[in-house]
Amino acid sequence: MPAHPAGRQPGTERVANATLSDYLVAVHADVPDIDIAFVGGPDPSNPIGAKGIGEVGLVGVAAAIANGIYHATGRRIRSLPITISQLL
After folding, report:
1. Catalytic annotation on 55?
2. Which of 43, 48, 60, 73 matches a 20 to 30 Å C-alpha distance to 16?
3. 37 vs 57, higher pLDDT
4. pTM of the complete model
């Protein structure tokens, strides 16, 4: 994941933070709007003609759910799948 620009030294682009706890990481709110275009016709490069981008739209879902659980319960879960036994 790319570093947030605020955590870099100007000119050298070296990490300026003393520890990883001070390291700023870009989040979904830092990403600009994305324009989506649908392209018609099947894809000739595979037998079923399917096109897709897979998990690109799902990247932040697990983290968002884990953060929601943290805010609701106060318990930070750092592994998947999140189960009820991890909350007890």
Report:
1. yes
2. 60
3. 37
4. 0.41
